[in-house]
Amino acid sequence: MMSHDQILITGGTGTTGSRIAQRLIEQGYSVRIASRNKGKMSKAEYVYFDLKDESSFTPALERVKRIYLVAPVGVFDPSPYVLPFLKEAKRLGAERVVMLSASAVPEDGPVFGALHRAVHGFPEWAVLRPSYFMQNFINVQHRMSIQTEGHIITAAGEGKLGFIDADDIAETAVRALIDIVPHNTHHILTGPEVLNYAEAAEIIGAAAGRPVTHVSISSSELKNRMETAGLPADYARFMAELDEAISHGAEHRVTDTVKRVTGKEPRSLTEFAAAHAAYWKR
């Protein structure tokens, strides 16, 4: 059994990290949030941390046995940043790593493949591979186009996904961090149903009280849009290719992982949309 040493949360002010930290604190765990910016969680310890700054690794990892790991966002090959961090974590005695990955990326695939292998090298580990976050509809990816145009724009065609709430990802991550028996597996995480973007748009429109439609564009058009929005070309190409794969059924699945690991049914998009309708008001 692990003692209540500090649990390090990288990306601790982000979508999943902040939720995980709050749940751990509520359960009496000592939490250290590693971030470039200090947040507002009063019972957490904050430490400056940047995966691109190796001098920040050792202070963040002192007295840490368990780590929630989020790779840098928008970086096609994060291994030059993450692998040295994991090496230092192992040197300092970290025992368990729970890593956020993605269901759309194979275990040995691009972006996360090398990180998966490194995480497997710890005595205790779990890799969380969620489908697309429901929060994408209220954050930068889709919120503005829904608000201003009533559109959700993708290259996913009629492909279906098991959209998942970040709260359900966080609940699963907490179990992977604190369960006495390590999970030592890849968790494919989905919501309770598969939907295409047209169906998702209809649900969101019903909650918002106005029409919302899905506009399907080519993967090359999507890549150009992402580059214009500031994503590096290689990462924009990667993201557009994921949409293309979705159009061919790559994400058409529902798993029971959230219920099996947490004991709770995952939230539906209908429930999520009802709770977040204010985000899509003009």
Automatic annotation (TrEMBL):
Coiled-coil region list: none
Domain annotation NmrA-like: ranges: 127-264
InterPro entries: Ergot_Alk_Oxidoreductase, NAD(P)-bd_dom, NAD(P)-bd_dom_sf, NmrA-like
Pfam families for the chain: NAD_binding_10, NmrA
Location of the NAD(P)-binding domain: 11-115
Highest taxon in the source lineage: Bacteria
Protein name, as recorded: Oxidoreductase YesF
Organism: Bacillus mojavensis
